[in-house]
Amino acid sequence: AAGTVPRRRPPRSDMGRGLTLLLLPLALLAVPAQAEGTAAAEQVQIEVLHLPENCSPKSKKGDLLNAHYDGFLASDGSKFYCSRTHDQGHPKWFVLGVGQVIKGLDIAMMNMCPGEKRKVTIPPTLAYGQQGYAQGKIPPNATLIFEIELYAVNKGPRSVEAFNQIDKDSDKKLSELEISQYLKEEFARDGKKRHPSAHDEILADIFKKNDHDGDGFISAKEYNVYQHDEL
Fold it and tell me: Which keywords does UniProt give here (predicted)?
């Protein structure tokens, strides 16, 4: 569900396999765009509540994060969201810095390490602005407060490691055969039952949304949409 939280993900026993279809585009939240000048005028306030002695690795754009957090309205302190009681209480997975959460959270969770806890205050311009978010019980022009506990920082789905894993012949481009084989391996790992046509449909969708020049390959540049690693 879109809104104050990242898209729901089913729990996985292996964090390294937490995103089954790594090439599939990730859903963005329907948050109204704010004018750059307006957003720049207000800042996210960050208070570190707990910092582990060994604070590594630190999160960066494109990393896959796993976290619990509570959301409050700054106006009256009322809680509008708690990840521990939502969707069976599983910590939330999302990719940092690509719009899967409101802009203020993307900013607030940069350079954060596993085990760290933060309390962050996010102005309306970096949250839901003048429109608010009725479904999430967030009124217009609301300043939001989140208490965040970060559990894991992993290489995101568009990392160099993920690309090289799929690129069997190391030619810096992904063929239909390579991605087809990768999908088969991922399907076998998660053990879910799928209709026989699912493989072909997903493969076609991947190329439709990622093969921008239509040459039948997904290049390193086309794949690395988050621009956080060099291929």
Answer: Calcium, Endoplasmic reticulum, Glycoprotein, Isomerase, Metal-binding, Repeat, Rotamase, Signal
